[in-house]
Design goal:
Strand order of the largest sheet of chain B: 1-2
Radius of gyration of chain B: 22 Å
CATH class of chain B: Mainly Alpha
CATH architecture of one domain in chain A: Up-down Bundle
Oligomer: heterodimer
Shape of chain B: elongated
Number of strands of chain B: 2
Largest interface: A-B, 70 and 75 residues
Order of helices and strands of chain A: HHHHHHHHHHHHHH
Keywords (chain A): Electron transport, Membrane, Respiratory chain, Transmembrane, Transmembrane helix, Transport
GO molecular function (chain A): cytochrome-c oxidase activity; heme binding
Shape of chain A: globular
Largest sheet of chain A: none
CATH architecture of chain B: Orthogonal Bundle
Organism (chain A): Nitrosomonas marina
Structural class of chain A: mainly alpha
Pfam family, one (chain A): COX1
Number of helices of chain B: 5
Strand content of chain A: under 5%
Protein name (chain A): Nitric oxide reductase, NorB subunit apoprotein
């Protein structure tokens, strides 16, 4: 750690990991309600649990990006963060807003558009915290060395802020509401967040492989170019059945195919660079996560997403458990693994240790990745069956749900294994140090 | 790696392409906005009670169990066409009474069956919500969902 303000990342990572645990616990609870429907039904009904599950995910991912930016920007820009005080203020505001949201959900106080349920004042608080962050980071980048990694990261973060502003527009016309709702939801996860992802991965690859920055950065431009070229009009695959014009059918299908390209390019990029370098970095766990992330993102976000993005297929599969299957692996592969990779890389420096607890960390990788894969398979099977029974045979929704209950048991089981993996990760990252990597003699 | 693509060329393609696609996306969205207001939804029947009903829908976070036009939580049935499923096209009064009776009877408490909470909606809120669902069922969704099951 060359710059002392990089230490700002540490409290962000701790807050992010705490909310990660909240997210997974809420997920296990929701999975339990699926198989024991009367469980908690009067005290904390399903819709409350699900809001906590999805909102905690979004907030902890953002906290991860904020922390990663505070760690990465000083090294890229070769100067300290503009104002550490503002960074602390931002953290306080953001964590307070997140906790306020959770508490208000438990009391049934919320708005009602999916993922944007935060009460208005919480949304405003989050936007203010985000603006403070953007101001702090932008000034740091402007005053320091400008690298492609920091510029792409900054663009992604600016984009995330600007597109979030659509969350404040809620027209009475439901079709219009949905049209612009996707400007937040889709453009975040299939657009500007991919810039953040590619920039963070690029930083990790530069550090882990030692390959020449010029090569890595050139391909970074190519990848984020593909992300936005495909991702913006790729929003079309959400505009099939909500009252939007039919031309979105072919635009959505065409650009959905293209949306796979940046994810596949990231796989090639990461593996090629690691192969090129031939260097063994002492932080093996960080390397494992950094390679696992693009692979799982490619399958979860890329392939699984594409499979039901064609209008002729989506007509039948839209809004079934297939969407849930795709959503879980996409978020896990692209963004959860990205953050966990970054934490694994940065925490030894932040805790002033050599890479530590690596075996335990890698166990958590396989536990979480394996169980999430199984969860995705079970939900995908449930979704295919549901599609056939409901959309082809016109059987009633509730009747079908009891037919596919076995899959929900498997999902709960894999969820429990995921929880064990998450706890193992938390312990390996933040707990006491049991083993350290031998210091590489050559370095 | 390819020598013919320089870093500055890659950068220019990125910026140029992004601006191009953002402009295109904005134009198509504005056209869709116009299309929704004039073709696919019935603006003349978007009354105050429909708008209030949308807020009832939101205030009670219905979307986190149900889906509406396929978007939502997959835990409970699709409601974009619930008006049609309840026979609202044939008998508006019957569908309205049926929906109200259903919501008032929750939770059923039947063991092993998913429970819908009791939201204690007033008569006015129930009517507004049903107006909203009725209006939603008339959005031109290009034939989706495939059948009444939703």
């Amino acid at each position: 750690m060359k710059y002392h303000t990089q230490a700002l990342a540490y409290p962000y990572f701790i807050a992010a990991l705490a909310l990660f645990l909240v997210q997974v616990l809420a997920g296990v609870l929701a999975g339990t309600v699926y198989v024991f429907p009367n469980f908690l039904s009067e005290t904390v009904p399903f819709h409350i649990i699900r809001m906590i599950h999805t909102n905690a995910l979004l907030v902890w991912l953002l906290l991860g990006y904020f922390g990663a930016s505070y760690f990465l920007i000083p090294e890229e820009c070769e100067r300290d963060i503009h104002s550490p005080k503002l960074a602390w203020l931002q953290l306080g505001l953001f964590v307070f807003a997140a906790l306020a949201a959770v508490v208000s959900y438990l009391f049934g106080i919320h708005e009602g558009r999916e993922f944007l349920e935060q009460p208005l004042w919480v949304k405003i608080l989050m936007a203010i915290a985000f603006i403070v962050f953007i101001y702090n980071i932008t000034l740091t980048v402007l005053k320091g060395r400008k690298t492609v990694v920091s510029i792409v990261l900054l663009l992604g973060l600016w984009g995330a802020l600007l597109f979030f502003l659509f969350a404040f527009y809620n027209p009475d016309n439901l079709a219009l509401d949905k049209l612009y709702w996707w400007w937040v939801v889709h453009v975040w996860v299939e657009g500007v967040w991919e810039l953040i992802m590619a920039a963070m991965l690029a930083f990790l690859l530069i550090k882990l492989t030692g390959v020449d920055r010029e090569i890595i950065e050139k391909w970074l431009y190519v990848i984020v170019g593909f992300s936005l070229f495909s991702g913006l009009l790729g929003t079309g695959h959400h505009y099939y059945w909500i009252g939007t014009p039919q031309y979105w059918h072919w635009i959505g299908a065409l650009f959905s195919i293209l949306e796979v390209v940046p994810f596949f390019a990231m796989v090639l990029w990461a593996f090629y660079l690691v192969y090129q370098s031939g260097r063994e970095h002492p932080n093996k766990a960080a390397m494992l996560w950094s390679l696992g992330c693009p692979v799982m993102a490619f399958f979860g976000a890329g392939v699984l997403g594409l499979l039901h993005s064609f209008p002729s297929i989506n007509f039948y599969t839209h809004g079934t458990q297939l969407t849930a299957a795709h959503g879980h692996l996409a978020f896990y592969g692209a963004y959860v693994m990205l953050n966990l990779a970054f934490f694994t890389y940065a925490l030894p420096a932040l805790r002033k240790l050599q890479p530590y607890n690596q075996v335990m960390n890698m166990w958590s990788f396989w536990l979480m990745t394996g169980s999430m894969t199984i969860m995705t398979f079970t939900l995908a099977f449930a979704g295919v069956l549901q599609t056939h029974l409901q959309r082809v045979l016109a059987m009633g929704f509730m009747e079908i749900q009891s037919q596919i209950e076995l899959f929900y048991w498997f999902r709960l089981g894999s969820g429990l294994f995921f929880l064990i993996g998450a706890i193992l990760y938390l312990y390996s990252a933040l707990g006491s140090v049991r083993e350290q990597a031998a210091v590489a003699r050559r370095s | 790696m390819a020598e013919y693509l320089t870093k500055s060329a890659a950068r220019n393609i990125f910026y140029g392409g992004t601006i191009f696609f953002l402009v295109l996306f904005t134009i198509l969205t504005l056209h869709s906005h116009y299309y929704i207001q004039n073709v696919s939804t019935d603006a003349s029947t978007l009354t105050e009670s429909v708008a209030r009903g949308k807020h009832v829908w939101e205030r009670n976070s219905c979307i986190n169990c149900h889906t509406l036009l396929g978007e939502g939580a997959y835990f409970a049935p699709e409601l974009g066409n619930v008006w049609v499923r309840y026979g609202g096209r044939e008998s508006a009064e019957g569908a309205r009474m049926g929906l109200k009776a259903w919501m008032r009877a929750q939770p059923t408490g039947v063991p092993g069956r998913r429970q819908m909470p009791q939201f204690n909606l007033t008569e006015q809120e129930l009517d507004d919500l049903i107006d909203f669902l009725e209006w939603t069922s008339r959005i031109d969704t290009l034939g989706w969902p495939p059948n009444d099951a939703g």
